Amino acid sequence: MSSKPGGEGRKRGRLSRSGDFDRAYRDGRSHANRFLVLYAFPRTEDDADEVRLGVSVGKKVGGAIERNKVKRAMREAFWSLSDRLPDGYDFVLVGRSGVAGLIDREGTAGLTASLTALLAEADE
Hints:
Elements: E1 13-14, H1 18-27, E2 29-32, E3 36-42, E4 52-57, H2 64-80, E5 89-95, H3 99-123
Parallel strand pairs: 1-4, 4-5
Antiparallel strand pairs: 2-3, 3-5
Helix pairs in contact: 2-3
């Protein structure tokens, strides 16, 4: 289990291979709003109880420092909602160009609210 504080006992997996990203983009369901796009892909592998996250932020968001700040905030917001996530899914979270402004104005709380709306849409 996770040794990170706030892990609530769930493993925090990361998507790292480009093939995993490609599969989520190609075969997963997507939900989008003004700031984020969320791709969800159900896995059927042996370790399918683990939730994995991939984060992508393009250069339109800003320079490398700004993109890394945005990615950290996106990961924090995503894992803060871990109790709402279904087991056995790969998620890819893509930051759109306005996401940095949202984080500057409303902080992680604004990002969490935006992501919560996407997860609610995905449940429908």
